[in-house]
Amino acid sequence: MFIVFCCVWVFSLGLNSLESRITRDRCGTCMPTSRFVILEFGNFYMNTFTESRLSKAKEIIARYPEGKQKSALMPLLHLAQEQWGWLPAEAMDYVAHLLELDPIEVYEVATFYTMYNLKPVGKYVFEVCHTGPCMLRGSDDIIDHIKSTLNIRIGETTADGLFTLKTAECLGACGYAAMMQLGDHYREHLNKEKVDRIIEECRKAAGQLN
To answer: pLDDT of 166-186, one tens digit each?
Structure first.
């Protein structure tokens, strides 16, 4: 019993020391000590925004009234995805930390929208719309052609890390079907020949960047 008491006492001293070293987050907001303890032991601070992105995050959060900072959640998830290329749990926890939310509140949003990547993706992500109007205009054939050409299935990435294929719900461009989103741009009126040209354009751009 004495040994158990000593172990608990030593551990509590360590937590008190940690509490004295960590009292505020990088936005200057007080956080519960228990959350800091968990995140510190999990190497939380290895996943933080760059200085410029942190400044942008603060600007976004400041747009909303006190207590309504959850409204900044989706823009901050975009910032996180821009920095890390996808949203690992640590990144989502970090966003929750900045907005003083429970992590589950962030997970609920990130898992709902297909625009957020929950695992590593390629340099070029083909998000092909597969809802009604696009299906009528041949989106299934486009998806099959991409799968065959790149030798990947939906949700997979090519071995060279260049391409990822995803499907998306309506992207609001029904008049330009079949279509897909590639980065920040829509590629519209797709057919197999146009898809082949897009793939070649991406490969050439990747070669120039390398």
So the answer is: 999 999 999 999 999 998 899
Q: How many residues does the chain have?
A: 210
Domain boundaries along the sequence of the chain: 29-119, 124-209
Q: Can you read off the two tokens belonging to residue 53?
A: 């992105």
Both tokens assigned to 143:
């998806």
DSSP for the chain, written as a single string: -HHHHHHHHHHHHHHHHHHHH--B-TTS-B--HHHHHHHHHTTGGGS---HHHHHHHHHHHTTS-TT-GGGGHHHHHHHHHHHHSS--HHHHHHHHHHHT--HHHHHHHHTT-TTS-SS---SEEEEEE-SHHHHHTTHHHHHHHHHHHHT--TT-B-TTS-EEEEEES--S-GGG-S-EEETTEEE-S--HHHHHHHHHHHHHHHHHH-
CATH architecture observed for domain 124-209: 3-Layer(aba) Sandwich (3.40)
Check if 29-119 and 124-209 are the same fold: no
Question: In 3D, which of 166, 82, 172 has the Cα closest to residue 126?
Answer: 166
Write down the pTM of the prediction.
0.69
The correct answer on CATH 1.10.3210.10 for the domain covering 29-119 is no
How far apart are alpha carbons 109 and 60 in whole angstroms? 18
In tens, the pLDDT along 138-150 reads 999 999 999 999 9
